[in-house]
Write a structure and sequence with these properties.
The protein is an all-alpha fold and 441 residues long. It has a single domain, classed as Growth Hormone, Chain: A (Up-down Bundle). Helix content is 74%, strand content 3%. The chain is built from 18 helices and two strands. Helix 1 runs antiparallel to helix 8, helix 3 runs antiparallel to helix 16 and helix 17 runs antiparallel to helix 18.
């Protein structure tokens, strides 16, 4: 089958030479990207809403802030389980069904968190939510990125991953608007209502069921179970590298985001509303960074774009945590997340390009979540160190180490910039550490 490149609204999409109308193909591609974006957005909303409620939950259950922050770590700890379950399902049964089941699962777990009668039950429910959260990234990334042209994969990758930033922004918006309204009349229940909102994304499963077409790339590369299992040991070196990469990227992301509202309120004496507003502004920077750095990765390669963003973030640390005035501090948060999430925006494309086609539903997502598990200690360490020193010292020191380690690991790794995901395409390009060699698009 021959493939042509169509361009509309500045985004190139692939169209086959079949009898399917072009308008239908564009719609299918748009819906696939939208489903992946929204699935990750709502998933991130449910995760980040907790970061605004640490003090309230600690008070409600009689716990310390580090103990509540530990629930973030436990959520991350369960994500590999979800990546394993839903990722293997995505490789065996297609992308749509696992994605629908995953959305419903994490939405229910989030809503039930608001009904937890004890801290122990709350912990268990957040761990269950972690399973759902873990399955979303790999499935949504493979579904979306298998639908578009390699030429624009970096931009779409950046947009897709910024669903994570948008979820954070929406969590801040809900905290800024919904939370005060409930807290004014029922302060003891306000934090619970925030988790009830997390149940709404279950409706997204209906959109996936009715509007999203199954990935043609998956249909071309699906294998029998025996071949699938036997192929796993052959990529162990690549898998370990991806885990290492995602571990350092996890420290970079969670180390600069999870306790940022707590830092603003506890050390810089921001009100809850101002902390939420500052976080929202930083997430605008994150969204822009994902698109800009993603575009640069299409032009100059994945590694060059990521290293540039990470090193720029290193230079921004003083402005991010030690700016003398509010305006500069807000600017520092904006620029920090522009760089951090800009580098992160390249990750979906980079990991999927480095993975064999028949394992693309499982391996990127599972490696991602193992890396997040190893990096899950970041918010707990920051909270613990912040209680003994300052949050600025804790966050700045850990971020600097993560940025330096990240630039080294990214620079020494492989790259398969622009490789096609359709059948036969991967034979055109031999995965190499020489980033200057690009495969045919």
């Amino acid at each position: 089958m021959r493939w042509g490149i169509l361009q509309r609204h500045g985004v190139a999409l692939m169209a086959s030479s079949t009898n399917i109308p072009i308008s239908v193909q564009r719609r299918d591609q748009r819906n696939a990207v939208l489903a992946g974006f929204l699935g990750w957005t709502f998933d991130a909303f449910d995760f980040f809403v907790l970061t605004f409620l640490i003090a309230d939950i600690a008070k409600a259950f009689g716990k310390t802030r580090p103990e509540v922050a530990l629930t973030l770590t436990l959520t991350l700890a369960m994500r590999p389980v979800g990546a394993l379950l839903f990722g293997v399902m995505a490789d065996r049964f297609g992308r749509r069904l696992p994605m629908m089941l995953n959305i419903v699962f994490y939405a229910i777990a989030s809503a039930l968190s608001g009904l937890a009668p004890t801290f122990q039950v709350f912990l268990i429910l957040r761990m269950m939510f972690g399973i759902g959260m873990g399955g979303q990234w790999g499935v949504s990334a493979s579904l979306a990125l298998e639908s578009i042209s390699p030429k624009w994969r970096g931009v779409i990758s950046g947009m897709l991953h910024q669903g994570y930033s948008l979820g954070n922004l929406l969590a801040a918006l809900a905290f800024l608007t919904v939370y005060p309204a409930i807290h004014a009349t029922h302060p003891e229940y306000a934090w619970r209502v925030m988790f009830f909102i997390g149940g709404l994304p279950a409706l997204l499963s209906l959109f996936v069921l009715k509007q999203v077409k199954e990935s043609e790339a998956w249909q071309e590369h699906r294998t029998d179970w025996r071949t699938y299992v036997r192929s796993l040991p052959t990529i162990w070196r690549r898998f370990l590298y991806l885990v290492l990469l995602l571990t350092v990227m996890g420290f970079i992301s969670h180390g600069t985001q999870d306790l940022y509202p707590t830092f603003l309120m506890q050390q810089r004496k921001f009100s809850q509303q101002n902390a939420a507003l500052t976080t929202m502004i930083s997430m605008v920077g994150a969204t822009l960074g994902g698109l800009v750095i993603g575009y640069f990765s299409d032009l100059f390669g994945r590694r060059h774009a990521m290293i540039g963003a990470v090193l720029a973030a290193l230079l921004i640390i003083p402005l991010w945590i030690a700016a003398p005035g509010t305006a500069l501090l807000v600017a520092g948060g904006f620029l920090m997340q522009f760089c951090v999430q800009g580098a992160w925006g390249v990750i979906p494309a980079h990991m999927n390009e480095l993975t064999p086609a028949h394992l693309r539903g499982f391996v990127p997502g599972f490696a991602y979540q193992i890396g997040m598990l190893l990096a899950g200690v970041a918010p707990y360490l920051e909270a613990l160190i912040g209680e003994h020193f300052t949050y600025a010292q804790a966050m700045g020191g850990l971020a600097a180490i993560a940025f330096l380690a990240g630039s080294l690991i990214i620079g020494l790794g492989p790259e398969a910039h622009g490789i096609t995901f359709r059948k036969g395409g991967e034979s055109f390009y031999r995965l190499t550490k020489k980033s200057g060699t690009n495969p045919p698009a």
